[in-house]
Amino acid sequence: MSYWILASLLLLLIVQTLASYIDRVYSEMGKFLSRDFQENVDAWTRAVEPKMILGRDTLALSASVLRQITLTGIAVLFGAKLYSSLTLLPILRHGPRLPDFAMTAVELVSIVILFDRLIPYLLFVRTKGLWIARLRLPLVLIFLVLLPITGLLSLLISIVALAEPEEPEEEENSSEGVDALLDAGKEEGILEESDRELVRSVVEFGDKVARAVMTPRPEMFCVPGTMTLDEFTNLMAKEAYSRVPVYGESIDIITGIAFARDLLGVADSEAARQTVASIQKPVAFVPETKKVNELLKEMQRAKQHMRIVVDEYGAVAGLITIEDLLEAIVGDIEDEHDVEEETNEPVGNPQEGWSVPGRFEVSRLRELFESQNDELPVDLELPSAVEATTVGGLVSELAGHIPHSGEVVEAGRLRLEILASTDRRVQRVKVQMAASPETADNQ
After folding, report:
1. On the chain, which terminus has fewer CB atoms closer than 10 Å, C or N?
2. pTM greater than 0.70 (yes/no)
3. Which residue spans traverse the membrane (predicted)?
4. Among 350, 348, 307, 104, which Cα is nearest to 214's?
């Protein structure tokens, strides 16, 4: 093989590896990835893509085009190698030898698998993707050279898209589809009831927002920044918290988060003079409409265990922890420090009614009565104009005030009796379902 063919092949293989790696980065975006793959995608989107001049769509198309061009170039070079290994006279007289073709084909396939598939995969698994930032300038030059090709290709794709008839949009209901699959799994004996609930929780997790799983503002445990560390130490000895929010003039001014472990580094002589504000760490805020699956990823990457939830006006709405997010999937998580208290899960049965906490989600009420009618879905006939997402909010919205203990509120087929409440919120409600008109007529 001549030196120019060897040098060209080596250059093409390097470019092929980079193009395949970048093409895979864009193909993996938006998927649930392993930690190694996600680190590579994040490194590209944070450290490289913003400095590449071109937009994301153009870069993705350029990487795909470059990959195909280099594959073609490699095939051409191997053809040139095969041609140079044979003299013209034997080709004319006897034709090329079969072993030469077979060897060239094996070499070509092996190199394509190695540099187009295996090495890019190893770069995903064995690196965090930061290395490619050093190659930003060469990549920019290559993609700019390809810009006429990608521009023409984009134009052709747009023209073809205009010629295609518009397909009617179909409403997708992923929840119903998942329920159907879970029911089929139950009938086939593949899924146990606990497995079905876990799968359903994972699917519903992606649709929830921070407001649905946060600890609401009235239940937040906070300390003022002016509290001395001596007082803070005594308070933390009584409470089971490892970290608490710190506020300034009011709870709407959260200034940081204080960690109980930081008290270990404070001398007793200093504890009476220093305040909690002196040991607080920076706090992060999140809007109450943030999707919890995105929030979980962000908190994992930032290595944060707590964030303060704010409403659209910037006022504190509550706080959210990693534990809150995990409990949204697997249910309540208790450790040896948790105090035995009234359960937050519904207690009772469909016939006599359920006792539920005020924070119980309205969307889960149907689950409580499904066992009464396995064949047909339960219709609770709740008012469509209701905006509340919790049972406590539902009874307060329907009653027009914070109901007192003993009050009864009707909502569709539901009878809601307040079991416990304060002047600020409803704590516990007994939920019963009235018989349907058809059932009542039959009795």
Report:
1. C
2. no
3. 101-119, 139-163
4. 307
